[in-house]
Design a protein that fits this description.
The protein is α/β, with parallel strands linked by helices and about 425 residues long. The protein has eleven helices and 19 strands. The chain folds into four domains: about 100 residues, Rossmann fold; about 35 residues, no CATH class; about 110 residues, Cobalt-precorrin-4 Transmethylase, domain 1 (3-Layer(aba) Sandwich); about 120 residues, Tetrapyrrole methylase, C-terminal domain (Methyltransferase, Cobalt-precorrin-4 Transmethylase, Domain 2).
Length: about 425
């Protein structure tokens, strides 16, 4: 076989749909490589006496064929591509030799210089595949390849590598969930669309730090709905989305959390649909689970809570507008997560206790969750109303009610179901 020389590898994309591919060895290397081969549509045969649980699951679901034995000469007959990755050095040598004789492109995980092909570090972003191979006079450097790959893919995803004349400014609206506040918790797709926007209509609870990264030409509209303060009516927000989209602009509606979790995202989507305007919904990380998690509170925990319920607390239990069955909630054994409930928590706690919830039930209030200003105030259902006033808890805050509040602090908390 050819020794390493100074000639660079010739890059090429293999079209393996419906073509025979043989994988020798069912260990960790196969587990990492098989999903991409499956996605390419390859007709895959695995030859290995054993396999990891994940690889075995691929065989069980029919994504690959598994021959549970050691490699035998002739296994690569009519094969287009081979991945040799077993722990048996002799089998790897024999399979590699057969690939050389039959002119089958062959990757070896244990000896790259004995292979006829190398696997690049690959990444994907919106229909683009990035493949990176690096070589030096001492040989290949997969870690450097991966680092370059990551930098390129990240640039494509967040828009920083998109050439200006190639950027997609398709008119329409994207309802983007910005997550709970930390700018790093927006999704990759959401960040990319934000980088490509002409107009951004942003909520107060969206990741505000991301707005500083926008180019100067991007118009940013403040749609803040601050409690008891400035208010941009929902109808005005809808109309702004419609007007800018009809003007041929790429519009991002940047919302806190997830657009459809108390975000009125469906109202906006319906208004756009009525005008025949294309709308993309990009889910976001909801504060109902991320903020408790950031404060060390699991909303479910084995042996403690098998369910959690998310409730809007923006109206009091005795308000005729309330759609919440507080009596039913009081009977649940799981976790109760309240959003927009800081000023109503006193009335809510009284209603829960009146309907049978124990006054000693632990409560945690997490203000400004996932941000640098995050703080946690602990209480019980009996005194939470007083604690909110005494500690001057202000929105935005997520309130968690249930035994999970004590899990992170109580070493004796049960672990078994």
């Amino acid at each position: 076989m050819a020794e390493y020389d100074e000639h660079p590898a010739y890059p090429v994309g293999l079209r393996l749909n419906g073509r025979r591919v043989v994988v020798v060895g069912g260990g960790q290397v196969a587990q990492r490589r098989l999903p991409a081969l499956i996605a390419a549509g390859a007709d895959i045969t695995l030859v290995s006496p054993s396999a990891t649980a994940s690889v075995e699951a691929m065989a069980d679901t029919g994504e690959i064929r598994w021959e549970r034995r050691r490699y035998q000469d002739g296994d690569l007959t009519d094969t287009w591509y081979a991945l040799v990755a077993s722990s048996d050095a002799a089998a790897n040598d024999a399979a590699s030799a057969e690939a050389e004789r039959t002119r089958t492109w062959c990757v070896r995980s244990d000896d790259a210089e004995a292979a006829t092909a190398w696997t690049p570090a690959t990444g994907r972003s919106e229909g683009i595949t990035v493949a990176v191979l690096t070589t030096t006079s001492q040989g290949r450097d997969p870690r450097h390849s991966a680092a370059v790959r990551d930098a390129i893919v990240e640039g494509l995803r967040d828009g920083t590598l998109a050439a200006p004349h190639h950027r997609t400014h398709a008119p329409g609206v994207a309802l983007v969930g910005g997550g709970p506040g930390d700018p790093d918790l927006i999704t990759v797709r959401g960040r990319r669309l934000l980088a490509e926007a002409d107009v951004v209509i942003a909520d107060r609870l969206g990741p505000r730090d991301l707005l500083d990264e926008l180019p100067p030409h991007v118009e940013v509209i403040d749609a803040a709905k601050i409690p008891y303060g400035r208010y941009m009516a929902q109808e005005a927000i809808n109309q702004a989305l419609i007007d800018h989209a009809k003007a041929g602009k790429s519009v991002v509606r940047l919302k806190g959390g997830d657009p459809f979790v108390f975000g009125r995202g469906m109202e906006e989507a319906q208004a756009l649909a009525a005008e025949g305007i294309a709308c993309t919904v990009v889910p976001g990380i909801s504060s109902s689970i991320s903020v408790p998690g950031a404060a060390g509170i699991p909303v479910t925990h084995r042996g403690v809570a098998h369910e959690f319920t998310v409730v809007s607390g923006h109206v009091a239990p005795d308000d005729p507008r309330s759609l919440v069955d507080w009596k039913a909630l009081a009977q649940l054994r799981g976790t109760l997560v309240l959003l927009m409930a800081v000023d109503k928590i006193g009335a809510i706690s009284q209603a829960l206790i009146a309907h049978g919830k124990s006054p000693d039930t632990p409560v945690a209030l997490v203000q400004e969750g996932t941000t640098a200003a995050q703080r946690r105030v602990d209480a019980t259902l009996a005194d939470v109303g007083e604690r909110v006033v005494a500690e001057e808890v202000r929105p935005p805050a997520v309130i968690v009610i249930g035994d999970v509040v004590a899990v992170g602090t109580d070493p004796a908390a049960p672990l078994e179901a």
